[in-house]
Amino acid sequence: MSLKDQLDLQRLPRHIAVIMDGNGRWAKERGQDRLYGHHEGVESVRNVVEACAELGVGYLTLYAFSTENWDRPMYEVNGIMELLVNTIRKEVATLSKNNIRLHVIGDMDMLPGNARQEMEEAMSITEENTGLNLVMALSYSARWEIVRAAQNIAKDTRDGKLRPEDVTPEVWEKYLCTAKIPDPELMIRTSGECRISNFLLYQLAYAELYFTNTRWPDFRKENLYEAILNFQTRERRFGKTSDQIQQNEEIVS
Ligand code: IPE
Ligand code: IPE
Ligand code: MG
Predict the structure, then answer these.
(1) What CATH number does the domain containing 199 carry?
(2) What are phi and psi of 18, to 5 degrees?
(3) Positions of the chain with pLDDT lower than 50, given as ranges
(4) In sequence order, what are the beta bridge partners of 18?
(5) What was the pLDDT predicted at 179?
(6) pLDDT of residue 36
(7) What pLDDT sits at residue 167?
(8) Residue 251 counted as domain residue
């Protein structure tokens, strides 16, 4: 039986988030420039987006560029931005054809004008689509997002739009970039690093974490199925006991 056939389609993660890591090392291992790794990583993006759309996963968030990545050598940053513009331009028709809606989270003001424009156009072209929600985390960092949310809450409180006691978890979440997006249930990081690197710190509170040594440019649909199968073996307890979870499952089934 193929890995795909082993998946329980009733228990798919509603939202999968991926830290696409290892492009640079993948290229270096082949005696190539780091940018070659970023280019090859685009094929992995296509594969994983297609797999999620086929399976019926609701949300896929891809961490493409962090706030901290702006500090890389200018040559690499420019290369990544150029790749981003070209890829979005090329892929927007395929996204539309497959009913995929594009969202972007992150500090869009930091992006070069043409990259921002390309992203805004692609979001508007795909905004009526009702299939997979593809969320690109671009110039994103969780600390930036959290501090921005705190600033906006402070402003709204000062302006009388909000009282301090109104700030519940539900209200707080509306101030994050991911308002209206459910929390990730599965977070995958490629390339062997076991850290979060400033990604969705609030939203990952109860995500199942999956780390694989596979470098991002080698990641394909089968690797995604493997991660989902692993997710499906886990008991998610949310602070309760195992007995409580099992009793609840018996009642539901
Ligand atoms: C991930 O791959 C892509 C970005 C961060 C833009 P890296 O470029 O971090 O590759 P490694 O981790 O150096 O191998
Ligand atoms: C995290 O990878 C950011 C992205 C994948 C876009 P990094 O390669 O930047 O993270 P660190 O520096 O290894 O923590
Ligand atoms: Mg890296």
Answers:
(1) 3.40.1180.10
(2) -130, 130
(3) none
(4) 62, 188
(5) 98
(6) 98
(7) 97
(8) no
Q: Closest by alpha carbon to 181, among 55, 17, 35, 56?
A: 17
Structural domain count of the chain: 1
Residue 63 beta carbon below 6 angstroms from any ligand 2 atom: yes
Domain limits for position 58: 18-234
The answer to the question of residue 13 being in a domain is no
Residue 77 forms part of a structural domain: yes
pTM: 0.97
pLDDT tens per residue across span 140-150: 999 999 999 99
Query: What pLDDT shows up at residue 253?
Result: 73
CB atoms within 10 A of CB 78: 13
Q: Please indicate, yes or no, if residue 4 is contained in any of the structural domains.
A: no
pLDDT at 251: 83
Is 198 within 8 Å of 15 (Cβ atoms)?
no
CA-to-CA dists, residue 50 to 46, 132, 234, angstroms: 6, 9, 25
**How many A from CA of 57 to the centre of ligand 3?**
26
Q: Which residues is 135 bridged to in the sheet?
A: 61, 103
Active site residue 69: yes
For the sheet containing 101-105, what is the strand order? 101-105, 133-140, 59-66, 15-19, 186-189, 208-211
For CA atoms 140, 116, 101, 215, the dihedral sign is negative
- In this structure, what token pair is assigned to residue 180? 């209206």
**pLDDT for the residue 248:** 87
Q: Which atom of ligand 2 is nearest to the CA of 64?
A: 6
Give CA 93 to chain center in angstroms: 21
Q: Which residues surround ligand 3, an ion (CB under 5 A)?
A: 21
CA distance linking residue 81 with residue 65, whole number of Å: 9
Cα 216 to averaged position of ligand 1 atoms, centre (Å)? 9
Distance 21 CA to ligand 1 centre (A): 5
